Amino acid sequence: MGEGDHREAKEDGMGELRRLHNGGYVMGARGGKRDVALCRGSEGAHLGRAGSGNVPALCEVQDETVAVAAGANFSLAIGGKGEVYSFGLANLVGQLGRQGDGASGLVDGLAGFEVKMVRAGKFHAAAVTKDGALMTWGYNKYGQLGREVSASASEGGTFDAMPGRSWGPWGGNPIVVSVACGAYSTLAINVLNELFTIGFDRCGGEMPAEGAPLHPARRVRGVLEGRAIGQMAIGHNHWLAVTFEGEIFSCDMRKTKGEVNEHGELGRVATAANEVAHVAGGLCNNDGAPSDKQNCELPAYHGCDY
Known about the structure:
By secondary structure, the chain is an all-beta fold. Helix content is 0%, strand content 32%. The protein contains no helices and 21 strands. The strands form 5 sheets. It has a 5-stranded antiparallel beta sheet with strand order 9-10-11-13-12, with no helix packed on it. A 4-stranded antiparallel beta sheet has the order 1-2-3-4, with no helix packed on it. A 4-stranded antiparallel beta sheet has the order 5-6-7-8, with no helix packed on it. A hairpin with a 3-residue loop joins strand 5 and strand 6. Residues 1-6, 8-49 and 282-305 have low confidence and may be disordered.
């Protein structure tokens, strides 16, 4: 597939209510005049507003919100001009992308960038700019930021509170069109519709040693070689990838086969750890192969959440 032949990854539709790991909810809107995100959850500054978290109410973020993301006790929102705001508790590993914590604040390290997508992991975050730059910040113990950082975290590992660009390698093309964040890993799709993994994830081959100065992005090859990836989602221990033909592939990121697919989350029989394999039937039929590739539509965004 040539550089000029790429197909854009389908963006997630906003406006749906998303359940958070802490029992709360967050909802954003896309298109037209938007209010701020609608938030619900346990009490705390990660809601971006004061008062009880048991009743949905508008977050005190800014006048216009186009997208939101939620991590472990911190939240992110994209404003109408592509600026990013963060709010949350205990900013110990830089997950807010700025100094301080609590009330909503501008992620000033992204000033000058127009951000089109933002995602939150457990204690790290990533943003994709209009120009295709992948910006990361927060906790980096397992190299999930995909770049060199030096500040030491009290929990072990390193972190960076200042957003910085993750350069790849990206298969010769550093333009990123989509990103997803798990607990300690990051997935990204480049402009050639190739899937890359960063951090704690053995699906992309053997990981660098913990504490190595740089954990670069690794392309997921094998069965995905030559397939155009249009969408992906990542959970705590596994991820899913969807091709433009409607095929679903899944992988468990852990090392030991005995831990893999404990709850059937891979949607298939797991024969080995770290195996990227086809989820039989995909979205088109039940015999393991799409029956009509032209009619196999790329699904709406699905997030496993970490």
